[in-house]
Amino acid sequence: MRALIIGVGQCGNKIVDVMFQRRGIYTRGRDYLEPLLINTAEADLRGAKHIPDKYKLLIGRFVVRGHGVGGDN
């Protein structure tokens, strides 16, 4: 089985990070899980310690300059 686990926003990112912390590794037997974190705040993406940077997507970089949607009220 193959699955893509997507975390959107700070809460979604934290949930996916905890899932991969407990799982410990991305493959187990025939299972294959791949994370994807999506956020507008660069600091929130850096907070995910158990997900490699290649699975993190910063959107709105030029609109809110990586400060999240709270940076552009």
Strand content: 25-35%
**SSE string, helices as H and strands as E:** EHEEHEH
Major sheet attributes = 4 strands, mixed
The helix tally amounts to: 3
Mean pLDDT: 79
Q: Alpha-carbon distance between the termini?
A: 42 Å
Question: Which value, in Å, is the CA radius of gyration?
Answer: 13 Å
Shape: elongated
The unreliable regions are: none
Number-wise, the strands total 4
Helicity, as a percent range: 25-40%
Structural class: alpha/beta
Written description of the protein model:
Strands 1, 2, 3 and 4 form a four-stranded mixed sheet that branches. A hairpin with a 2-residue loop joins strand 2 (27-28) and strand 3. The chain has helices at residues 9-23, 42-46, 61-64, and strands at residues 2-8, 27-28, 31-39, 56-58. By secondary structure, the protein is an alpha/beta fold.
Provide tags for this entry.
3 helices, four-stranded mixed β-sheet, elongated, 73 residues, alpha/beta, 33% helix
List the helices and strands and how they pair.
Layout: E1 2-8, H1 9-23, E2 27-28, E3 31-39, H2 42-46, E4 56-58, H3 61-64
Parallel strand pairs: 1-3, 3-4
Antiparallel strand pairs: 2-3
Quick structural overview:
With 73 residues, the protein is an alpha/beta fold.
